[in-house]
Amino acid sequence: AADKINLIPQDFFAELCEQIIQHLNHKIPGVNTAELCQRIQTSGIEINVGDLAKIVNIISFLFSTAASNNLSTEELITTLGNAVTALPKHAVQVIRHVWNEQGKSISVSEDARSMATVGQFVDIKWKLGVAMSSDTCRSLKYPYVTVTLKVADPSGQITDKSFEMTVPQFKNFYRQFKEMAAVLETV
């Protein structure tokens, strides 16, 4: 991962570290690696979303471990120097700066730890479509609903999950959401 971190310009790496800190502080649901990866690629850097997601996981683990052990900035940098010799100098500088500025704000409560094992719902989008025809059937006229859920996994990486439903399936889905809303009203 160190060679991939070396590819990321310092400003993008700093933004990534800031987003990870915000995620660990529960201020944002996660790091949108797809959007950040696209911006990095637009700047001319060859990196894929999978590699960026691994970097997010590593830095997130680094910050959360440092927070749970109450490491000072110097202790963190010393530990990094002893453990990871191949980490690029600009990355160490960014980690030092971000940890120095915001590291103490990370709260590692038991509630946060237990909640971290489950993903977090971020957004939902849906659209209605009609399949007009296919190569095997000339006239389908089949309506369907496409639903896209945006979910932040425990490491903070935001992913989209999409699925299609028939209109009756969507009506059942909608009915179940209404039932959940009614139950939540009583709480």
TrEMBL record:
GO molecular function: NF-kappaB binding
InterPro entries with a match to the protein in the record: COMM, COMMD4/6/7/8
Residue ranges of every copy of the COMM domain listed in the record: 120-187
A matching Pfam family: COMM_domain
Family: Belongs to the COMM domain-containing protein 6 family.
PANTHER family: COMM DOMAIN-CONTAINING PROTEIN 4-8 FAMILY MEMBER, COMM DOMAIN-CONTAINING PROTEIN 6
Function: Scaffold protein in the commander complex that is essential for endosomal recycling of transmembrane cargos; the commander complex is composed of the CCC subcomplex and the retriever subcomplex. May modulate activity of cullin-RING E3 ubiquitin ligase (CRL) complexes. Down-regulates activation of NF-kappa-B. Inhibits TNF-induced NFKB1 activation.
Name under which the protein is recorded: COMM domain-containing protein 6
Lineage: Eukaryota, Metazoa, Chordata, Craniata, Vertebrata
